[in-house]
Design a protein that fits this description.
alpha/beta, Rossmann fold, 246 residues, 7 strands
């Protein structure tokens, strides 16, 4: 994403849905003292962690953190050289509004690079735990195109959003991401800590029921994704990277 965005020394960068500080911190290390990175997220708790990380790396003079969502937050106008959004765009209730706001913030020829997940069958680290959760809790599948991890997996829909938001020279790339975990329990803990749809469903369960469901997910990971020569878990996932220019 950093390469696709053309980030370099002196760049002004915007990171949407930065979470605990990536890829904004990586960008800040590249732009140097003459550049700047604005990182936003709707979670004040995550922003607090990101800010602490930036200070520990001596990047506090290069980075600013701001709470808000991409659809409504007041962004600098026509000054950003490169904007990034890693696995956050598909959770926006109004993708068009978010893209329009980001587009306005970009300088002429500025680039916006977003990473979203491909279709469920190509992203097992999220899809198979979700399938188990919905079965175990009798939750129905989410409505088509509702905000969620796979809502922008359709390349045509994704490209249409960018084009209608006045981005030009739109290109799409697909990349394989292999997630490795030492144990199945480590995988289950990772999913629970990072996958917001999983967190939402589990939050409505009692502590005892929650443990039972997590055990089912762990067992499924062992049966389907454990390496033959060790107890480690390996899952191949596909991400879609899209680039648009102002």
């Amino acid at each position: 994403m950093i390469e696709l965005a053309g980030i370099k020394q002196g760049s002004k960068v915007l990171d949407i849905a930065t979470g605990i500080g990536e890829p904004s911190i990586t960008a800040a290390q590249l732009v140097g003292e003459n550049g700047h990175v604005l990182a936003i997220d709707i979670s004040p708790q995550m922003l607090a962690v990101a800010k602490e990380r930036s200070i520990s790396l001596g990047l506090q003079d290069v980075m600013d953190f701001r709470e808000g969502d991409a659809e409504t937050i007041n962004l600098p106008f026509s000054t950003i050289d490169a904007s990034l959004c890693r696995f956050g765009l598909m959770f926006l209730p109004n993708v068009k509004a978010g893209l329009s706001n980001i587009h306005k913030s970009l300088a002429k020829d500025g680039r916006f690079v977003a990473a979203v997940w491909a279709s469920p069958d190509k992203v097992p680290f999220i899809s198979f735990p979700l399938e188990i959760l919905m079965k175990e809790t009798n939750n129905p599948p989410p409505p088509m195109n509702a905000p969620g991890p796979f809502s922008l997996s359709d390349e045509k829909l994704l490209e249409e959003y960018f084009s209608k938001s006045e981005f030009k020279d739109v290109t799409i790339e697909r990349h394989t991401m292999i997630f490795n975990f030492k144990t199945a329990e480590e995988f289950t803990n990772f999913v629970c800590e990072t996958a917001s749809p999983v967190q939402v469903i589990l939050s409505g369960q009692s502590e005892g029921r929650r443990k039972e469901i997590l055990n089912v997910i762990t067992e499924a990971a062992v049966n389907n994704y454990m390496n033959k020569n060790s107890d480690s878990i390996s899952l191949k996932n596909e991400a879609v990277c899209i680039v648009g220019t102002k």
